[in-house]
DNA sequence: GATAAGATACTGACTGGTCGGTATGTGAAC
DNA sequence: GTTCACATACCGACCAGTCAGTATCTTATC
């Protein structure tokens, strides 16, 4: 008996703790990488004890999976945001590019974390599949835009849309990578406009 | 006294041991990542003892640096190989692409290792600079080809060569990344020709 | 509205195992 | 008999995960 009827405050507290642990984890993982990140440091930064951690996560691996999922959905949201099918292709591309690049520039943890995810994908098939699905979603969003643009006669008809989406995503990711390795040489904020124009030129009907 | 006048055989033996340790290290690092890769496993795969390792490398970090250096020069070699300034731009691009993609496809350790390097670059400024220098060299090679092509009147004159090299490298790296995460969806061997043709079309004089 | 009973959220000391690095030994080449 | 190249045994630090204990809430009973 003694059924707990009102556990809303408890739930809120739980949620809050979990969130704080996750936020700390993202910082620590981004700064130290998966292996060097210690549970002790995460709970220290979150202001909790080790016991609290194991109330909310089964293991360090479990935390990693949760983090990956959260980050991917966050990422997809940013990708989708601002896409407006009634606008011309070029506008949508520009919005997506500045959205994604802006996210990377405003969040110093973005690049280290995704490199960590990538490195893990090489060893963990679950992680690899999650990332593959993320790319799949990206391509779907872009494919939608391109198909509509082609149907509206605003795009060349002799191009392979699958190929275009691959190359576009590849270019975006590659730019992010280079800007992370050589931030003085490759400035993301200066890339949005040239990339947009180049793509527009490439896709424009003759 | 007792000066060793003929230490050539010793040297050879030393070199061989070091090489075998490096080769084993590359395997282990690619398979497990820097932190999870243990010195014990490396020497086991190389067929030596831990003592041998510390004769040739100061520390695990030292080994990592040596490996990075070796891989980068190896990588640059592959990039440079086959470039022939007397041939048209398109041929050179095709050669470079199939060279780099071929390297990645034939060496399963390539992608995991470079993702590992990338993840480390986020935390270690020395590693970051080494990778930045590598990108710099790549760009130099491409810039050379493009300038000659432009001077020969075989390329549009209104394009920013720096931008082109960045995007080209970004696209290549991005394709490699995607093919690693989703090998069924993105096939590198099918990308060489479309990429070459797209670039040729982009750069061709009106 | 006081109190007992029990659930929940969290604490923090402890352990078992792992692993980088070292100290010392050994056999071969010269 | 000295030096070089490597082998072996060991140490100490670190860290993921455990678990018995505590503080704080909610509900039930009077």
Please describe what this structure looks like.
Two copies of one chain form a homodimer. Chain A has 206 residues and is mostly helical. The first copy, chain A, folds into two domains: 8-57, Homeodomain-like (Arc Repressor Mutant, subunit A), CATH 1.10.10.60; 62-203, Orthogonal Bundle (Tetracycline Repressor, domain 2), CATH 1.10.357. The first copy, chain A, has helices spanning 8-36, 39-46, 50-56, 60-80, 89-106, 110-121, 125-151, 161-181, 192-203. Chain A is elongated and about 65 Å long. The first copy, chain A, starts with 7 loop residues before the first helix and ends with a helix. The mean pLDDT of chain A is 92. Chains A and B meet through helix 1, helix 6, helix 7, helix 8 and helix 9 of A and helix 1, helix 6, helix 7, helix 8 and helix 9 of B.
Question: Secondary-structure blueprint of this entry?
Answer:
2 copies of one chain form a homodimer.
Chain A: H1 8-36, H2 39-46, H3 50-56, H4 60-80, H5 89-106, H6 110-121, H7 125-151, H8 161-181, H9 192-203
Helix pairs in contact in A: 1-2, 1-6, 4-5, 4-7, 5-9, 6-7, 7-8
Chain A binds a DNA duplex (30 and 30 nucleotides) through residues 1-7, 9-10, 13-14, 17, 38-40, 48-55, 59-60.
Main beta-sheet annotation of chain A: none
Q: How many domain modules of chain A?
A: 2
Task: Supply the helix-strand structural class of chain A.
Answer: mainly alpha
Helix content, binned percent of chain A: over 70%
Helix tally of chain A equals 9
């Amino acid at each position: 008996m003694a059924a707990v009827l009102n556990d809303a405050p408890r739930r809120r507290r739980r949620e809050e703790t979990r969130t704080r642990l996750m936020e700390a984890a993202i910082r620590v993982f981004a700064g130290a990488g998966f292996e060097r990140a210690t549970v002790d440091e995460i709970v220290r930064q979150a202001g909790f004890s080790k016991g609290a951690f194991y109330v909310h996560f089964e293991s360090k691996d479990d935390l990693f999976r949760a983090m990956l999922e959260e980050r991917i959905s966050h990422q997809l949201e940013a990708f989708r945001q601002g896409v407006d099918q009634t606008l011309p292709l070029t506008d949508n591309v520009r919005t997506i590019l500045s959205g994604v690049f802006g996210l990377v520039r405003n969040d110093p943890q973005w690049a280290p974390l995704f490199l960590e995810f990538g490195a893990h994908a090489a060893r963990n098939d679950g992680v690899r599949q999650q990332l593959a699905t993320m790319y799949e979603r990206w391509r779907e969003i872009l494919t939608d835009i391109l198909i509509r643009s082609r149907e509206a006669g605003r795009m060349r008809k002799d191009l392979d849309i699958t190929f275009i989406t691959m190359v576009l995503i590849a270019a975006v990711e590659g730019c992010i990578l280079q800007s992370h390795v050589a931030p003085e040489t490759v400035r993301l904020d200066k890339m949005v406009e040239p990339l947009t124009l180049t793509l527009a030129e490439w896709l424009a009907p003759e």
